[in-house]
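Appendix B, Record 12. Input sequence as logged:
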Amino acid sequence: MIRVILPAHLRTLARVNGEVELAAPDLVTVRSVLDALEASYPVLRGTIRDHVTLQRRAFLRFFACGEDLSHEPPDAPLPDAVAKGEEPLLVIGAIAGG
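Logged structural output:
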């Protein structure tokens, strides 16, 4: 199982509490995890990634195992601890302002 922690506003939208568990895809990448997440929770389509380009939304970041994975290629394998379900993939809402 893959564990995903969503920001509060996306948990509310998807009507989930705490972390989400998904069946592990064959190759665990940000793209494959988000594909599985959107398949399980269709209401999240377009909230994390753009509908057309599938690019990460500007104010969301991806973290795992203490690393910022936001600028990694979407098909790069995630750390083994995430693939094994030992650590979650965190989707974090960025804060902006001045």
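The helical segments are 8-14, 30-40, 80-83.
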